[in-house]
């Protein structure tokens, strides 16, 4: 029921996803009265799914604390299905803060994980790059950053299929002395962990699009700003190119000649192709679709969830964390910072503690 | 003497700048034995400048603490000339940390300013936008952010010529509850300050390129990452476009048809056009050119400095700060955070205290 054009966008997206994943079965949770007529329209979605009625739904502007108290929201019932093993994963285009809060409480974090993070892929000159945290934790300590690196590495291995992913820690300079103590300590821990040589060290903002590393690790504030800044810059460029190719007859002719390449470029950079942020560090697959996306974008978020389930992402992360714990690296770190905020800057979760 | 291709790049840039600013007089500080033959080659630079010999120079990898102890470096003598009123401003393509440290100690900060910041313009869909801090302060408190807003407003007024600049505070969401306490308090102070309605509130990463506000205020860590992420995304797009237009004969023909528009776009986004970060909050004009730029880029950094001098930027900021102090807004804020780092993640300055 979440997202700007829900529930139709979701059902239409599911229709596309059902075609791409012939063996997939979907549990569609929401207002049955609204879903039934939509399923009559989207045949493949209907054939692949079961509807579970939910009397209420979490709204976009609802505080996570309020959403946590709702026992019968569509979001809650969908997450419950993951927690009780009925579903392998959940995809939602709804309220991010509520989804993260519910997932943490119902699906729970993996043993040893202090805080889950949001991860997604972004385009780079050398192929897709995983970036995390994208906003689940506004403030992060050394331990969080180290855990993000372990989870990001597993994301790159399982979802992007990179056997030896290289990991970079986002900083204001690549020199070892740059940045704050928290970053320097995280770098030290990673260098001596099982990640070892795959830890590239510090990277800077321009390294994201350059694809210097396969994984970019940062706190949720910086990651959120970087993700949106990069998207904004690409969007600006896209808009300017549109202007160029419609500004004159000669430019319109040019577009016809360069169409194949330009269309491929647009397709490759299409934000819908990067839709689907994964909440990593949970004991199950939880994917957040952008609320403003369309059916194609939502189908991509479903692809991401299917990928993670099929490649044993959750078990892989648990394994990486076990290795880290064995090396007793985490034990050497300070306790998590009690002042650090959880969730995307949502004070409500702090209240809920 | 600073920059990858110095001193020739600097002299060649000065040659261009001398043509653009016929009344300008330049004090060229550096190794006379290297500058003299260059000035024989660049006639306009020679006609407009006086050479001051400096026996030594600050290197790119030198710690600010070491640079601070050098009394006769070209950087020090150039900054001395600003402090003693001989020059109206200084432009350097050298070591950023050293330049900021020297400028703070020699030129000094304006009365009431806790920390100077680095500001520069970036491209947006609605024209150039001022962003600060770009890395002078890795950690910032509420007071710093408020001061940055006042200085950014003056930058937009005097350098970009925007009579009523709109100011945004970079955050992970535009809702009032997002972000940390530090950001929420800065927003409260700005809303009730003389900036008042020109304070737009929180903006997100995508608002930078969208040009939602004329000024983007953020801490030095986030600003540095955002600046470089945006630059990286534009560079990626530029590289991909080059590939598109060289990939086939048909695409090469297309380039010829669209050349005017594409060249204009490239020119507009040319990083050299945005070269010249201003160290705002100092009692004089201090501009940092990118070390890797060429003559055209360096000339632009000189343009920025000339602009600031001609438009009374320093006096304008002092006036804005006085207004803020009169409203006793700053007094209501907590004392500066003693743990906050000065300079671009350079611990040496902390040692120097």
Automatic annotation (TrEMBL), chains A, B:
Cell compartment(s), UniProt: Cytoplasm
Self-association state and partner proteins as the record states: Homodimer. Probably interacts with PlsY.
Role according to the record: Catalyzes the reversible formation of acyl-phosphate (acyl-PO(4)) from acyl-[acyl-carrier-protein] (acyl-ACP). This enzyme utilizes acyl-ACP as fatty acyl donor, but not acyl-CoA.
GO cellular component terms listed in the entry, alphabetical order: cytoplasm
Keywords: Acyltransferase, Cytoplasm, Lipid biosynthesis, Lipid metabolism, Phospholipid biosynthesis, Phospholipid metabolism, Transferase
Family as reported in the entry's similarity comment: Belongs to the PlsX family.
Species in which this protein is naturally found: Acidisoma silvae
InterPro entries according to UniProt: FA_synthesis, Phospholipid_synth_PlsX-like
Main location: cytoplasm
Catalysed reactions, as listed in the record: a fatty acyl-[ACP] + phosphate = an acyl phosphate + holo-[ACP]
One Pfam short name: FA_synthesis
Biological processes annotated in GO: fatty acid biosynthetic process; phospholipid biosynthetic process
Pathway membership, UniProt: Lipid metabolism; phospholipid metabolism
Protein name, UniProt field: Phosphate acyltransferase
